[in-house]
Fold:
Amino acid sequence: MLKVACLNLQIAFTGTAKLPRWMGSAFRGGLGQHLKRIFCFHPMRDCENCELSLDCLFYVTYQKPFAKRGYSPPPRPIILVPPFFGREIEVENAKLNLKLIMLGKYYWYLPHVLLAFQHFGNMGLGDARAFGQNKFELEKVTCEFCGKVVYDGNLIHSSKVCIQDVKDFPLVESKNLRIRFRTPIELPLGFPPPPDHLLKLIRLRLLLLVNEYGSGEKIPNFKCKGSVKELAKRHHVLIGYSQRSGRREFWNCWTGLADYHFEKLDKTAQWLLGVGRVLGAGAKSSFGLGFMDIQPLG
Structure:
């Protein structure tokens, strides 16, 4: 259905780091600059007019304007998920863990992505790099699925990456769950999303990814019934840019914690929760939005 590689990146900042409140855009943009330097054979040529564009990871991840189905921009095959602090922070010699998700055939390009990430770290993250700050080193990379070390600071061991198909993701069988929405999720109607709406958001994200980078097969519908109890929430207005219009967009997003109780939860719904635990839910996966931790209660 859809092959997925999921990796944990450990980075270490050298000296003072001034980190923005939302790092999803900063990490995505910084990685893109260095991917282009690595991949581009014709840096003075427009991507749309390049005969190599469809085999170029930079073009597919940053420039491709239309999805295979419809006329909207596609979801992207390389997803970076940094932690979300919700405020600007200044730290000394900090270490951070990021998640890197690679979809479909694009896990073949892992060495290129890690090389670009190393160059990215040498230049620094965000606006503070202009003052020689926010430089970091890629210390270690491990596979989330099997726990093996993929990069040890010197060598890349691509053979130790475990690739899973989403159809084989383990089910979430517990009917009582605590879900932490650890990166902002776009919810125009407020937080927390009701059980059926949360599953719809997971299914929608999966559908887009399977259509673009997988088999394109139909995602089955689910049956669920339940309730949700809000424990904590915080509203965030994030600013992005529309690729089609070039205009600024304001995204109404939330982070928080909620307990879900399901009276009915069929096998498809259990599987979708397992998918959501890895791939998240909702729109704008490319910016690291909509990722969550799902833990059974009791």
